[in-house]
Amino acid sequence: MEDVRSAADGTAAEVVIPVNGAALAAHLAIPPKATGVVVFVHGSGSSRHSPRNQYVATLLRDAGLGTLLFDLLNEAEENDRGNVFDIGLLAGRLGQVLAWLRARPEARGLPVGLFGASTGAAAALWAASNADADVAAVVSRGGRPDLAGGHLAAVRAPTLLIVGGLDHAVLDLNRHAAAQLTCEHVIEIVPGATHLFQEPGTLQQAAVLARDWLAHHVR
C-alpha cells in the first residue's frame, strides 16, 4: 500500500503495512545517516500514538537511529482480547513487519533493534529467536518476557530488561525469564517506578537506558 504522507526528504512517512490481509497503520522515521532502525512492539492497550513510546522514539532518533512505530493489531482485532495475549500471532506478525521494513529503500541494509513493552516484549523476543530474524538487540520496558516461554533460550540478540522497582510481580517474572536467556542480557531496575513508569523522572531513566543499549548494539 502507498504512503499516506511522506516528508520532503524521504526520511519520515505515515505508512500502512499489509500483513496477511490486515492493514497496520505505522509511522516510519529514519534520520539522515541513520546507523540502524528500532521497531516498537506495543503491548495491550497501547498504540503508535503512545506518549511514552513517542518520547523514547524521539531520544532514539536524536541518537541517530530510525524508528518504526506501528499497531500490532487493527481496531477490530483488538476487540478480541484473545488476540492481545496470542504471543505466537503477534510474533508472526512482527516477523512480517520486519520483512516489510527491510525491503524499504530507506531502511535496506540497516541493522534492526526491537523495543517491546508489556506483551509486546514477549512478541519481540519470540520473533528474535527465529534463526533468520537477524535482530541486533532487544529492549523490554515493563515487559512480560516470560510469555515467550521456550523461545527465550534461542534468542541471540543482546537483551535489556527494564523493570520498575515497585513493579514487584513483573520484576519476578523478568528474573525468571532472564534465567532462561543464553544471550548477553541485563536487568535494569528503575527505583521508585511502577509498571507504567508514571512516577516523576522514571520514564526518562528508562528511556535513557533503552537509548544507550540500542545505540550501542544497533549499528
From TrEMBL:
Top-rank taxon: Bacteria
Dienelactone hydrolase domain segment(s): 92-203
GO molecular function: hydrolase activity
Record InterPro entries: AB_hydrolase_fold (IPR029058), Dienelactn_hydro (IPR002925)
Pfam families for the chain: DLH (PF01738)
Name assigned to this protein: Dienelactone hydrolase domain-containing protein
